[in-house]
Amino acid sequence: MKFNENLANLVSYEAGKPIELVVREYGIDAKDVIKLASNENPYGTSPAVVKAVGEIVNKMHLYPDDSYFELKAALASKFGVSEKSIVIGSGSDQIIEFAVHAKANANKGILTAGITFAMYEIYAKAAGAKVFKTESKEHDLGEFLQIYKANKDEIGVIFLCVPNNPLGGCLDAEEIYKFLEQIDADTLVVIDGAYQEFAKFKDAKKEIKPKGLIAKFPNAIYLGTFSKAYGLGGMRVGYGIGEESVMNELGKLRAPFNITTLSLKAAIEALKDEEFVKMTLETNFKEMKKYEKFADLHDIKRLPSFTNFIVFEFERQNASEIAQNLLKKGIILRDLKGYGLNAIRITIGLPSQNDVVLKQIEENLK
Amino acid sequence: MKFNENLANLVSYEAGKPIELVVREYGIDAKDVIKLASNENPYGTSPAVVKAVGEIVNKMHLYPDDSYFELKAALASKFGVSEKSIVIGSGSDQIIEFAVHAKANANKGILTAGITFAMYEIYAKAAGAKVFKTESKEHDLGEFLQIYKANKDEIGVIFLCVPNNPLGGCLDAEEIYKFLEQIDADTLVVIDGAYQEFAKFKDAKKEIKPKGLIAKFPNAIYLGTFSKAYGLGGMRVGYGIGEESVMNELGKLRAPFNITTLSLKAAIEALKDEEFVKMTLETNFKEMKKYEKFADLHDIKRLPSFTNFIVFEFERQNASEIAQNLLKKGIILRDLKGYGLNAIRITIGLPSQNDVVLKQIEENLK
Membrane-crossing residues (chains A, B) (predicted)? Predict the structure, then answer.
């Protein structure tokens, strides 16, 4: 059977290895596996959320309120925007997909950083859209602008990952606003804030305020997620915030019931426990220091991180080998070979997990 | 901002009204609302599933095993097909979307029944594909063939909804096989079996066996869901079964983690409790008799149903008015006005719910 051309060169996203796989392949007990590969919250989810969801597991047969009334009201209140400025996605990934399908096509491509979240490119290719990338790995807005100006007619969407996954760096809000001033009103700029909670906690200059952003730049949208700081990676809830007329168009692409009944409850309850998020952020950066110190001690190149992960770039050792050796011991890290880097990305885990991981990496440096 | 043309005339799916809305708008207590509008399982979910999911609510921070290893193994075993023949979707809706994006485009449209599941058309329009429909409301395969032969070059996907939502009728398996023999190997035929459990329970002639189907017709795929008979509407899990090379292409369009960690567990456990499904099916058709008897008594046109819902078509009364009157009393039914029918679709509920609904409809006939 012949399929649409776009599928020919489409390669799926390589997800972090699941605990179940390590159990199956290496016979390690699930409780002994340390998974620091997918930037999940090592503290789990707020106990209040766990309780609230536990109380409605007998409602799994019921579709969610597809208007997402309560969740949108809570987000609208949190960010000081209208409910109509918000679209809920199955993870913020899905809002990326909506943005691509709304603005990109065979004639209008996307522009991204050299190394950034892989789904921008995957969704673009699935839509038959061309992908422009900067030579620079991290976001170099000067280079973005250069490419944009030279190819304006062919670029429909610009993606800025702030902070940038899988590298960890983060643009200042001011830089982004200056950049936006030079972008045409008809080009959609997606500010992916999946890790914004971490970045703004570490450095206030990194904070993107959706309300101000969309008021000044109606061609920009902000993406947020419950997967990281809010500890709900497995529940797939994200959101996009943008000017109402823009979100109305993106919202047309949302299929009904795109999040589950339990996910909706979880997200609503998660917004009520900001203390849990604060604890997450505080411990994250405290523990990250262990990794920084370790890297400096062992002369490993580390990239500055405004997220809940850190990247170790190796010169003498082979990163894939290290990741593979640790995997056999039940430690799952993310090998960044697929991004063309001799590096591993490590989610900052629990203190006890971080100690084990660093000890095991040290073994591999000998 | 200018958006892709396909969005201009795109209208979202009108989901059944949620309980929360009736609570908000009419001040009725949630526990007093009878929702028979979305074909959810009135018996809820298997208690074993509720228990199993309840036990992992503390795992919401973890992404699911994106290979869906265990679920695919269980489905493969149930249907006697290979794991590679299966793609998991966020509801079978998402497999519809994959089928459209894989085969339809500006030059290749889709062909559906006159009145059928609305998402076929919505996904097609979002992809800029033309929609061919039969004049007949229910599936008339003669008319399908006529339209297909006259427009072969412009039709990439044929959707057969077996049984057909929102009407309830169901083609025989043999009719479908004969139809498939006349369809080109390059045209994808999607057999949407969301309500197959109900149909084959009522009449063995309706049963589509995915294994035999795809062995004989590699251009056909079968869709199933956990939303109806398995009582997991709110958890969004469906699947597509097809020839391996076809599913490999459709699978490329699946974003990672397209179902939640709790949904994955729920689906795996649901497959272990076929007794719950059997009870659902038995009580469904027993209760449906009440509706049939009522319709015959009051001279209401009823369509034969092989599903968990029944359609009442009115001649003298206004169906929308009846639906609206019942809504005010906390009874949510589906007005089919949007499909051009003076009819309401009623999910077969619990015995006590059905009695109340019929009594209220009777009030409106006076």
Answer: none
